[in-house]
Amino acid sequence: xGEDIREELNKLLELQDKDIFIFHMEKRIKNIPIEIENxxxxxxxxINKIKEEExxxxxxxxxxxxxxxxxxxxESAINKFEQDRLKVRTNExxxxxxxxxxxxxxxxxxxxxxxxxxxxxxxEKKKELESFKNQSKGKIEGLQEVIENLKKESDSLKKxxxxxxxxxxxxxxxxxxxxxxxxxxxxxxxxxPVVVPVRNGACGGCHAFVPTQKVNYLRKTxxxxxxxxxxxxxxxxxxxx
Length: 241
What we know:
- It is a single chain.
- The chain has helices at about 1-85, 90-175, 175-190, 210-220; strands spanning about 195-200, 200-205, 225, 235.
- The chain folds into 2 domains: about 20-175, Helix Hairpins; about 180-240, no CATH class.
- Strand 3 (about 225) and strand 4 (about 235) form a beta hairpin.
- It contains 4 helices and 4 strands.
- The longest helix has about 80 residues, at about 1-85.
- The protein has a 4-stranded mixed β-sheet with strand order 2-1-4-3.
- Helix 1 packs antiparallel against helix 2 (about 90-175).
- By secondary structure, it is mainly alpha-helical.
């Protein structure tokens, strides 16, 4: 009798192992799309960062052109002042034009200095952007490869899952209904292990105290019983019988 119950126990443990395996498979299938979405977001962030830096560089180029236009306008003004200087009749007019020319040249010099500084900034920015693009290209390609591998993993798991569920069904059909019903009832309430060992006089699931009489019964019959607190199926491990 004890051997028959022990055989049912082994079947229950086999069924439980299969359920745990299936549970992790389904969890992995559920989590893969989330991982893929996160990697897509990471790629999108890199692309947006590149666009942002390109827009900054474009803005700097526009500022440089504005400098050149402003310098050209000042040069034209200086040329006009110099032509007007040839036509002046009084010292007062001459000094006024000289002042205008001096201020214009001073302003031009300042703009040219700012333009040169901006050119250096642009060149440095271009180098940094090119370096970032090269690094990003490798990173994006790596992330895309990871995404493709995750898709393959998902496809593989989805194909394997029905096979494992069929194996589970075949195992369950070998178990007597009286034991299978208890197992399925407790499993419907709890996702964690249903069939647990008694260790140090406590349930291996909820860790509640198991009455000594019940422990002795399990040892004597080498059978199974249920925990009075959580309803899990209890047994004594073979090595401590």
